[in-house]
Amino acid sequence: MRPQAPTQLFRDLSTRIKRCARDAGFDLCGIAPIHDFAELHVFPAWIADGKHGEMKYMEACDEAGDLKRASLARVAPWARSVIVCAINYNTAHPYSTQTADASRGWISRYAWAREDYHDAVLRRLKQIENELRGLLDATGDSLQLRSYVDTGPLIERVYAKYAGIGWIGKNTCIINQQLGSWLFLGVILTSLVLANDGFTRNDLMEDELMADLPAPDRCGTCTRCITACPTQAIVAPGELDARLCISYLTIEKRGEIPDDLRSGIGRHVFGCDICQDVCPWNRKAPVTSAPEFEPREGLVNPALDWLAEMQQEGFRDLFRGSPVRRAKLSGLRRNAVVAMGNSGDQKFMPTLKRLCDDPDPVVAEHARWAVETLDPPLV
Ligand code: B12
Ligand code: SF4
Ligand code: SF4
Questions:
Q1: Which of 48-52, 78-82, 209-213, 245-249 has the lowest average pLDDT?
Q2: What pTM was estimated for this model as a whole?
Q3: Atom of ligand 1 nearest to the CA of 251
Q4: Which residues pair with 239 in a beta bridge?
Q5: Which ligand 1 atom lies nearest to the CA of residue 245?
């Protein structure tokens, strides 16, 4: 039998890709062109203002000195389309804003999972890659594909918007009208010129297309996320100052957390979900069918003293293959100590006093702050 003619195969390729994405377990898949989108022009000023804080990898430049993440066309000149996939990670557990107990910590919804999302998403992207290679090998066409979760030279949310996955909310998150914003994104850069013809949802009829491109903004007059953010990190609709964001402070920031930001962190020990918890589009967010996003034992509203006193071995065992490793033991203990200081609960005082002499100077310094916060000196 003669191999199928390439043109015939390409005509329905974007539909085939979306079917592959569904088979791989993604909830949404769409295709975006490579383009100089208006949103990308915001990025250089954001970096120049230092809003990325200490996340040096965001500053990476190409040979011409342009920020890599804002110039995909120059960094990957072979790329013609971006396949954007999204998977729901919401599990059936209360939102952080539904728990009033300040003596318990909060590990963000994405991070309590059994498997690190980088691995869970990349595994699925590779499955699509393999199927595509198999499909196109038959035509003898040369094909370039590169899958990324977080680490690619692109701002994923911008491409997700133009692939129709969702709009960029005032909280800067991609929100899908049906699924809400508890979505991980993954992208495949490809040398294929693919039809940008809307996205598919895997729970819809076979190959049904949702053709709103780009996804229309449905925030309207709502400003709940901006008002609810405890550290005023959303400095304008759709613009975050990462240096103020609890997610940055508890995950990315090394060493000391600036004094004036500690109280705003509340009970957060890893990441923050508030601007998504309060979003009306997450009120009825469906629950994921992917078991790997279910929480590890003890990580929903975790006990703060347990985390603050954790040792290297316990940390290694509990967080093997978990995104929480990014904070390292020192960062997680530091965060737990700050949350104990913010709890108003005197039961933590003996532990905190002990931790004032901790061999880790960062933990010790934050413990002294927490003791003073729980029991302010009389003036
Ligand atoms: C660095 C980073 C962070 C940083 C900075 C976040 C930020 N908002 O920039 C920190 C550590 C704070 C962070 C936190 C979180 N992150 Co994060 N993060 C990233 C990462 C690696 C890069 C993001 C980036 O490039 N930021 C640069 C800024 C400038 O881009 P942006 O915020 O997307 O802003 C764009 C638009 O808002 C728009 N825009 C902004 N202002 C304006 C103004 C105008 C006029 C216009 C036209 C456009 C516009 O243009 C911007 C691009 O230039 C991406 C993965 C990736 N490679 O893209 C994940 C990613 C964005 N993070 C993700 C997640 C899940 C989170 C958290 C929910 C985790 C948590 N629970 O703690 C929080 C959410 C906080 C929040 N409200 O954003 C998901 C988001 C999924 C989704 N549904 O949107 C991503 C896509 C990872 C993934 N692969 O799934 N993150
Ligand atoms: S993640 Fe938390 S701190 Fe960051 S912008 Fe959202 S509400 Fe504010
Ligand atoms: S809380 Fe309101 S303003 Fe913020 S992202 Fe959700 S809909 Fe948009």
A1: 209-213
A2: 0.95
A3: 11
A4: 236
A5: 12
